């Protein structure tokens, strides 16, 4: 992108905003782009930049839920106020805008999965499931049905044309990089997607929104899961799955019973506060056994994990001849969205596993482990999978052969 478009404000040249080059081999005026507009500042700026760069632009907003107070919650997405904000932006920049009702699909694929995963003692990431099953699947197909040449979103991640096809890379602004949440994107989807904010910082995006006088320029970012309006996950799970909050025992890693709890849905791995026990030493949730309704706690050292098994692995790195070819591959692995990638090794046996060079704390089943290419300093996203079984007692000599 280049600073080619000059915006006038109050009769004077105020600033230059990026000219968006989407890499589609046809004249811009003949290129149709669907922009996923959530009602936030990022997707609004994408729509404005794409339109200003001369593309035929169509905005689509998904109505995903109508969850009581959530529809009025500031900083959520895809509900009442946010749909209104997206429509205001579309009207201001002069593009067509449509609202699609995906509420039933979202409930089935994301909200119900969230509740069931929590009940199973895992820590889900519904944002990944939403991208995987709704935005990059259903919405992408809708964009194709509209004859669009690509689907553009406000994610902070990069897509580049590599020698062997499309590649996903981390955003220029490491503090905003969202590649962790997009690891499940397929090669076919990546070919069709565009991410115009890849090279911009959040401050630059807000500056552009202000220059364009967009009504969402100072709108706060979303902080919580969109369908959890007060941040209390257990309340949502209890509402969706009545009777799910059954009592059980809190057990120390050494086997001693420390007390009782009112339901595993009130706990997550790594949690320290709100355990309901007093032992004189700081204890953390180490493991949740939903079948036996046991919450296992222990000292901080018990959280250190070196190896994890993975399920539903998605590989978008270079093409390989069979999964076995990746056995022993050195990578950088990211086990939380808020943590940097760290050196690790891929192990391919009966399934996929990752062994970290150094233990990481709070690696929770249900979260994602995302792979980055060690050879380029971790810029390229290679894929990832969902964390299943974790262990801090590593015996992998038989796997390494």
TrEMBL record:
Cellular location(s): Cytoplasm
Residues flagged as site, Interaction with tRNA: 155, 367
Chief place where the protein resides: cytoplasm
Domain tRNA-specific 2-thiouridylase MnmA-like C-terminal residue range list: 307-387
Interaction with tRNA: annotated segments: 176-178
Reactions this protein catalyses: S-sulfanyl-L-cysteinyl-[protein] + uridine(34) in tRNA + AH2 + ATP = 2-thiouridine(34) in tRNA + L-cysteinyl-[protein] + A + AMP + diphosphate + H(+)
CDD domains named in the record: MnmA_TRMU-like
Active site: 130 (nucleophile), 226 (cysteine persulfide intermediate)
Start and end residues of each tRNA-specific 2-thiouridylase MnmA-like central domain: 245-298
EC number: 2.8.1.13
Residues where ATP binds: 36-43, 62, 154
UniProt keyword list: ATP-binding, Cytoplasm, Disulfide bond, Nucleotide-binding, RNA-binding, Transferase, tRNA processing, tRNA-binding
Pfam families in the cross-refs: tRNA_Me_trans (PF03054), tRNA_Me_trans_C (PF20258), tRNA_Me_trans_M (PF20259)
Similarity annotation: Belongs to the MnmA/TRMU family.
Protein purpose: Catalyzes the 2-thiolation of uridine at the wobble position (U34) of tRNA, leading to the formation of s(2)U34.
Record's protein name: tRNA-specific 2-thiouridylase MnmA
Organism whose genome encodes this protein: Candidatus Phycosocius spiralis
